[in-house]
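queue> holo job accepted (adenosine-5'-triphosphate)
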Amino acid sequence: MTTRQNSSSDASLLLEVPAKINFWLEVLNRRPDGYHNVSSLMLPIGIHDRVTAARRERGIELGGDGGGVPLDRNNLAWRAAEIFLGARPDLGGVRLELTKRIPVAAGLGGGSADAAAVLLLLNRLAEPPLSLPDLARLAVQLGADVPFFLRRCPALATGIGEILEPIHGLPPYPLVLIKAPVAVATALVYSRLKLTRGGARTRIATLLAHPWEPRRHLVNDLEAVTLEMHPRLKQIKAWLYRRGALGVLMSGSGPTVFAVYRTLPEARAIGSEADNEWPECWVGVTEVLASPSTGVGR
Ligand code: ATP
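queue> job finished
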């Protein structure tokens, strides 16, 4: 996190918050409250939204580029500010600015990332700050994935996604991401999926022993249903495998599909090919952020 000085000389803080992929995602069961228990290896990747925050006397102001998401109460960034100010009314108010680069409704967790960024920024502006466990309690009220973005490091997520165990020792996998312009009806996908049993412990040990055989580990219980609804995603997966991917999987509830490559130059070359082959799609080339993020600091 960095500090900027604006013209009226009140400091604004800036945070670049990464997207995530689910290297695997097992849906274990449905809970009485409607949420699902999951077991997922969540990895931050090098595509970032940018959020800035500055104190104001009262109220919330949200500006910038929402990438098509309204800059009002419907925005998770706004809701995060509301929830934080509810817990810490002494802060007064906040002016936020959002620059979206993470594709929206993509399975890359962009909304959750922005919400977590706002919590982290506001906590930096509050004196004294909330503890990380208190911040995590606010985060989970905003969404099951939000706690992951408070830490932004590779983690095994269980519970509804809020119980996080950091995983060290993974390589910075080079990735090609392709998001087809299809809308995934997440609730429908969850209603149709087949549940599997979690074998996360074994899988993490095997993955760390054989990190360059990712295909053995890539599982997403939501994928089969989504691919059935959107056959184009199957074609994209097959195309990436034909281009030498070590593993290909849909992230979260999709529709973004990620492919793991051995080197970044190889990923870049396939990314350029993908731009020509799939002109209607968003294509991204990046890496897994395998080391802990720089975290909170001025
Ligand atoms: P997940 O992987 O956590 O399921 P996602 O990556 O599929 O999420 P998001 O980009 O987080 O999807 O968007 C999901 C919904 O949240 C969209 O319908 C969008 O309108 C809404 N939303 C609210 N605020 C934001 C935000 N700041 N960024 C993105 N989406 C937002």
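queue> The two ends are 6 Å apart (CA to CA).
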